[in-house]
Amino acid sequence: MKIVDIRATTVTVPLEAPLRHSNGAHWGRFVRTIVEVEADNGLIGLGELGGGGESAEAAIRGLREYLVGHDPFALEALRFAIANPTASLYNNRTQLLAAVEFACLDLIGQHLDVPAYDLLGGKLRDRVPFASYLFFRLASASGDGEVRTPEQLVAHARELRDAHGFTVHKLKGGVFPPGYELECYRALASAWPEDRFRYDPNGSMSVAEARRFGQAIRDLPNEYFEDPTWGLNGMRQLRDLGIPLATNTVVVNFEQLATNVRDPAVDVILLDTTFWGGIRPCVKAAAVCETFQLGVAVHSSGELGIQLATMLHLGAVLPNLTYAADAHYHHLRDDVIVGGKMPYVDGTIAVPDGPGLGVRLDRERVARYAELYRELGGYPYDRDPARPGWYPLIPNDRWADPS
After folding, report:
1. With CB atoms 3.0 to 4.6 Å apart as the test, which of 145, 177, 280, 352 could cross-link to 140 if both were Cys?
2. pLDDT at position 184, please?
3. Residue 310, pLDDT score
4. Could you tell me which residue ranges the Mandelate racemase/muconate lactonizing enzyme C-terminal domain spans (predicted)?
C-alpha cells in the first residue's frame, strides 16, 4: 500500500454560542481542516487539525511531495520525514504530522480490517468517560446561550448533566476577575457536592493569585487545578496546595515531560493527540507517566468527529487513564461524519469499532460547512469579540467585566 494523494478541506461548524477563554474566544464556530490521505488501493484515511484555514490547507498540500509513494505502515519514518526535530524549529509541523498520522492509522486499520485501537495495543474499555467542559459564553446570534453569572453557569451545567450524564465538571476560566470566577466555581461545586470538579484559567494568574485561589477551593472535591499559572517553575511553587496540578500547556513534548519527571511540577499530564504529534506519541507519553506515577487525561483542542475518534481510541488503550477526558464536542451543533454527532451516554462516548478510526465523512455535511467557511472565513482565536482591541497579559490583569 502506497500513498498517492493528500487533500485538505477547511470547514466551519457552528457552536451553540461563542466560547470565551483567557486568550480570547471561539467566535460561535470551530474552524477545522479535514485531511484525506488516499492510497493506491482506493482507501482514504482521515485526519483533522484546527485553525489555520487557508494556511492549513496550503501547508497540507505542501506535504504532497513528502507523502506520495510513502508506505502508511512506515510511521516512524514518516515522523522524521515530516517533523525532524531540528527541521521543525523552522517549519513547525507537529500538528501537520498528527493529522497525517491519524490518516495513516485509519488507512492501516481499513487495510487490515481492524480498529485503530488494535494497532495501539488493544482496547481496555468500550467507552471513554468525559467531563462537562463548561465555558463562559457570549449570547448566540439569536440572543440565547449566554453564560456569565453563577446562576447561568449552574443552569447550563444542569442542562448538560441531565442531557449527557456528566458527573465530572471542568470550568474554563481566566475570563473574569479571579474572585468572581471563584464565586462561580464554588456555586458549581455546591450544586452537586457528590460530583468532581476541575478549574482551568489557562495559566492567566500570577503565582500569588493562583495560590490565593487554590487555598480558597481546597475544601471542594477538586480532581485537579489545571494551569493556574504559567510555566513549570510557576506551577512548581504551588505544589504545596494539596490539590493535584494538571497541564496541557507546559508539558506538551517529551523533553518537557522528562524535565517534569526530574523536577516535579505537575501531577497530571493532559495528552492531546494533535499537540503531541499523533496518537502514538500520546501512548508513549502515557507509558512514561505510568512508570513515574503521573496521572494522565485526554485533552481537547476543539475537535470534530475525526479528532474525537482519535481521542476515543487513545482513551480506549491507556491502562492509566484514571481521569475523565475533556471535549468541546457537546458545544457543537453538528458534525461532518456520517450519522452526525456521536452521542453521550452516562457521561461517556463509545469507542468506534469500525476499521481504522471507525468514522467516515458525510460528504453533504462537508460541502455545506466548507461553503460556510468560504462565506464567513476564519476568526482570531486570540481576540474576544466582546472586547475590541483587547489582548491579555501573562499574568493577566485585563479581565472582562462580569456586569
Report:
1. 145
2. 98
3. 98
4. 150-244
Distance CA 109, CA 358 (A): 9
Tell me how far apart the terminal alpha carbons of the chain are, to the nearest angstrom. Answer: 59
Catalytic pick among 70, 172, 328, 331: 172
Determine the pLDDT at residue 85: 86
State how far the alpha carbon of 306 is from the alpha carbons of 35, 242, 244, in Å. Answer: 10, 37, 31
Question: Any catalytic annotation for residue 299?
Answer: yes
- Distance separating alpha carbons of residues 383 and 285, to the nearest angstrom: 32
Q: Give the count of alpha carbons within 13 A of 104, CB side only.
A: 27
pLDDT for 398 equals 97
pTM, two decimal places: 0.97
Amino acid of residue 43: L
Cα distance between residue 55 and residue 65, in whole Å: 17
Active site residue 169: no
- Stretches in the chain below the pLDDT threshold 50: none
Angle at which helix 254-262 crosses helix 279-291, to 10 degrees, equals 10
Amino acid at 23: N
Residue 11, classed as helix, strand or coil, is strand
299, 313, 328, 331: the active-site residue: 299
**Structural domains in the chain?**
3-114+362-375 (3.30.390.10), 119-350 (3.20.20.120)
Nine-digit cell at 223?
Answer: 480532581
E strand or H helix at 368, and its extent? helix 363-376
Provide the residue type at 185 as one letter.
Y
Looking at residue 47, what is its pLDDT?
98
